[in-house]
Design a protein that fits this description.
Shape: globular
Radius of gyration: 24 Å
Number of domains: 4
Number of strands: 32
Oligomer: single chain
Distance between the termini: 56 Å
Strand content: 25-35%
Strand order of the largest sheet: 5-12-9-10-7-6-13
Length: 556
């Protein structure tokens, strides 16, 4: 077993190099053993094919000798060693009805031709196999299935579809799987199932988990329901009495919190705000819990109307005409425009008491790809009204004269430098690529979003395959796809990735990355993982001091 840090808040344990049943059994045994002997501070355990990824909150790791990374590695090593004797767990067998071909499987004819089979023979071959769930990722509930007959192995589409319907059954390489939600995708689509593979409201939200088995059963088109359960989206009634109203929606504005850890094993990214530092400071300034829901807007913000007296704090990007990083008294009927961001990319609005939205899977943030969380699982629109929770302190208790929290300012200039820890595949890139990664002023591309910050510069070359066995990724992981242009994974990243990772941006510098705009440049500077954890803990101490200072003024 090889254990490698993935930045300063995650760790990868590799248990083999071939994605087969024997390796998967070992992976699942180690994952079960880790969950049974859970180390305080560990937030996610993600089994996948040949590896187990452990995500942790370094501020919660028990004290002891050495850096937190050393203590997590020791726990992982000792616990995995004890897992050798565990017997294989019996997974459930799930039968999945599939309507093959036609409008539900537009690529079936091409797959059949490439396999040298008729369409009927292709369906029979695909549906007669017994598949094993090797991982759940890419999207919530998306199962990667082992056991595809070799004759049906197919390359992915040269150009991915912009929208793959939910329930679509596809083939990608040596794997088959099911898309739980409508999403872009590049697999060959051969059919579609009416089964719902992910229900966020359920106690066990995923239909299948790693180690389970799947068998497909062909059904005629006449049995396809008029409206598949996957497609149903029921919106709650408008919150007519909401305190904060969206007058004009500009850009991408959502309700976010600090994320929903604990569900990456079923493909649910923790998500949450991109700039955790700015969101936390906004809440601290108002006496809210750090995790209280806030508004996050990218590149430009909305115009708001307030229907009750309250206090707010605006942090992150600088907004023309709006004082930032301090409490602001807002009177009932007041309007506030956040349209013009003069510096930085993401702006946050916290309100005393926090925005009141339902909690889904332990978090209140919006997960746009899956359509749940936040306000109806979507971006905010004109006419939306958001309710506010009860404030911990009466409005008059917030001190207008509290100085701006200037030391937490994260909105950078046209060029920033962020620190990184070497990735598992660092040595697989040639010397020129490693040098270029550290010396290039990488330009931020306009296609960047909450999933990934896309950079452009010299192509990073390596001897590694462009796509590898999928394994866990983290917020800040720097993946290098076949075109050699790095992508820094952000808050809404997928939970698994198959591209080689050259490095991982450290936790303390992620807020700086969150504030770069298209056209800005980013440089990378290397730092040891233990030193990165020291920096992260120092940031936590600074936030704790701010919290104490605000609390003292609230009580005075």
């Amino acid at each position: 077993m090889q254990i490698t840090p993935m930045g300063d808040s995650a760790m990868l344990a590799e248990l083999g190099t071939i994605a087969d049943e024997a390796t998967l059994d070992r992976v699942l045994a180690v994952a079960r053993a880790l969950a049974a002997a859970l180390l305080p501070g560990v937030t996610d355990i993600v089994p996948a094919f040949t590896s187990v990824t452990v995500h942790y909150d370094l501020t919660q790791i028990p004290p002891g000798p050495g850096a937190p990374v050393a203590r997590v590695a020791e726990w992982l090593r000792l616990t995995a060693a004890k897992a050798k004797a565990l017997k294989r767990a019996a997974g459930q067998v799930v039968e999945v009805p599939v309507c093959y071909g036609g409008e539900h499987g537009p690529d079936l004819p091409a797959v059949a031709r490439r396999a040298g089979l008729s369409e009927a023979e292709t369906v029979k071959l695909h549906s007669n196999a017994l598949y094993r769930v090797a991982a759940v990722g890419f999207a919530p509930g998306f199962p990667y299935l082992l056991g595809l007959p070799e004759r049906l192995e197919m390359p992915r589409r040269a150009t991915p579809r912009v929208r793959v319907p939910s329930g679509s059954v596809g083939i990608g390489g040596a794997q088959t799987g099911v898309y739980p939600f409508a999403t872009p995708g590049g697999w060959q689509l051969i059919g579609r199932t009416p089964l719902t593979f992910f229900r966020p409201e359920a106690k066990h939200p995923a239909l299948v988990y790693p180690g389970d088995f799947v068998r497909f059963r062909a059904i005629p088109p006449g049995l396809w329901p008029a409206e598949a359960a996957n497609e149903k989206r029921i919106e709650a009634k408008a919150e007519a009495a909401g305190t904060v109203e969206i007058i004009q929606a500009c850009g991408l504005t959502t309700v976010q919190d600090l994320g929903r850890p604990g569900w990456q094993r079923v493909g649910v990214t923790p998500g949450g705000v991109i700039d955790r530092q700015a969101a936390r400071v906004a809440n601290i300034l108002l006496g809210n819990p750090d995790n209280a829901p806030v508004l996050e807007s990218a590149l430009t913000g909305p115009e708001l109307r307030f229907h009750a007296d309250t206090w707010i704090a605006v942090t992150g990007a600088a907004v023309a005409g709006v004082p930032g990083w301090r409490p602001l008294r807002i009177a009932a009927g007041a309007r506030l425009s956040l349209a013009e961001l003069v510096r930085g990319a993401h702006v946050y609005v916290a309100v005393a008491g926090g925005f009141s939205v339902p909690t889904v899977l332990g978090g209140a943030g919006t997960l746009l790809r899956a359509g749940f969380g936040g306000f109806r699982g979507r971006t905010l629109r004109a006419g939306d009204r958001l309710a506010v929770g009860p404030a911990a302190h009466p409005p008059g208790a917030v001190r207008r004269d509290w100085a701006a929290a200037g030391e937490f300012w994260t909105a950078g200039g046209r060029e920033i430098t962020v620190r990184f820890v070497r990735g598992r595949r660092w040595a697989g890139f040639d010397e020129d690529a490693r040098t270029a990664f550290k010396q290039t002023a990488w330009k931020v591309r306009g296609q960047s979003d909450r999933m990934g910050l896309r950079l452009t510069g010299p192509a990073l070359t390596s001897e590694l395959p462009g796509e590898m066995i999928s394994e866990g990724v983290a917020f800040g992981s720097v993946q290098v796809p076949p075109n050699g242009q790095p992508i820094v994974l952000m808050a809404d990243r997928q939970t698994l990735g198959g591209y080689p990772k050259i490095g991982h941006v450290i936790t303390a510098d992620l807020p700086r990355l969150a504030q770069v705009r298209p056209g800005d440049t980013v440089r990378f500077a290397e730092i040891p993982v233990a030193a990165a954890q020291v920096v992260a803990l120092e940031m936590e101490k600074a936030l704790a001091l701010l919290r104490l200072g605000v609390a003292a003024r609230l009580q005075s």
